[in-house]
Amino acid sequence: MGGQDVLTMTNKNHSNDVREESLESTAFEVDSRRIVVKGRWLKVAALEHEQWLETELDDPVACVKLLREPGLPKQRADIFTFAQKLPVTTPKYDYAMEWESVAAVRTTSHKEWWDKLPQETRKNVRRSQKRGVIVTVDTLHDDLIRGLVELNNDSPVRQGRRYTHYGKSVEQVKKDQSSFSDRSSFICAYYGEELIGYMKIVHRGDVAAVLHLLPKASHQDKRPANALIARAVEVCEAKGMSHLIFGQFNYGNKRDNPLREFKVRNGFEEILVPRFYVPLTSWGELCMKAKLHRGLIGILPHSIITLGVKARSKWYNRINFLRRCSSTSERPNRIRQMERSIPPAGSNPNLQQ
Q: Which structural domain range is residue 239 located in?
């Protein structure tokens, strides 16, 4: 995949200012922790922004006890789930557990990470430098926000699905990017004065996690995504981080896909961490026995998921194509109307009859 930096990564578990929360979700406080309940027929409770918190759940036993008390939450959850945080991978609790597939790079040594990379990836990083890409570490400011707005509007469809940040205003982008501002780094790739890619990483104690990675498709020949990751590993090493996390390695039964291939080529490996599931109702217990808590992506076979992803991609590309055709079909009419009132080049309108 020569243009391997045609990629967008926006984590799927955001809410509020990180990403829009579904209408079916509610949130409430339990033991100073904010719990979000999502779902219709199966309601699952989890820590809000769990992937971006600096620490994992302090006392799961007390939290489960409170969740089971009648009348506490506004919306009774059927299942409560929480995970351990890297670098600890040995299960600490006796609750029902499944291994969660995390994509991570060990960042204690940039050299060690670099030496393990495929030759093509190292070439891409060097190619980015030779083609004039400058990578900086920045904080959020007005000029960067304007660049991010332009970057968001580069394409309405990314990775075969509608891009939720496309068309957002400056105010909306500023609000989105202000999340976790006290412990975030913005790694920006510039070609001249143009922002052609950025990565936002959130520092979570001794690990960091990628919140956004967005290169500009029109500059994919300059390999900004590879350059951004290389700089992110340097930043994590300098800050003493043990790992850089880039979402999941495998999403349920969805295995081979371009995003996973990109992660592998850039040195990310699968690390299994414990994720615990605690049934809070009899319905939740029944659904766990039937594995329904995994969702469709964790139940359906890989072949069916692949067909669904391809169909979704074709649908969004088709809609985008029709929109472009609709917008361009109107332009000639307007141009012709203007041409009727504009004299030919070189003519003097004062001499026309």
A: 9-306
Assess if residue 108 is contained within a domain: yes
Is 4 inside a domain boundary?
no
Q: Which residue has the tokens 């072949």?
A: 303
Query: Count of domains in the chain?
Result: 1
- Please write the tens of the pLDDT for every residue from 108-156: 999 999 999 999 999 999 999 999 999 999 989 999 999 999 998 887 8
Closest CA to 207 of 249, 180, 243: 243
User: Which tokens is 244 given?
Assistant: 């850089």
260 membership: H or E segment, kind and range: helix 258-265
Residue 296's identity, in one-letter code, is: L
Question: Environment class of residue 60 by beta-carbon count within 10 Å: exposed (0-12), middle (13-18) or buried (19+)?
Answer: middle
Q: What is the CATH number of the domain that holds 257?
A: 3.40.630.30
Rounded to whole angstroms, the Cα distance separating 82 from 98 reads 11
Q: Could you tell me where the DSSP H helices lie in the chain?
A: 60-68, 110-116, 119-130, 142-152, 170-177, 224-238, 258-265, 282-289, 296-299, 302-341
Asked whether residue 296 is domain-assigned, the answer is: yes
pTM: 0.76
- Whether residue 273 contacts residue 85, with contact meaning beta carbons closer than 8 Å, is answered with yes
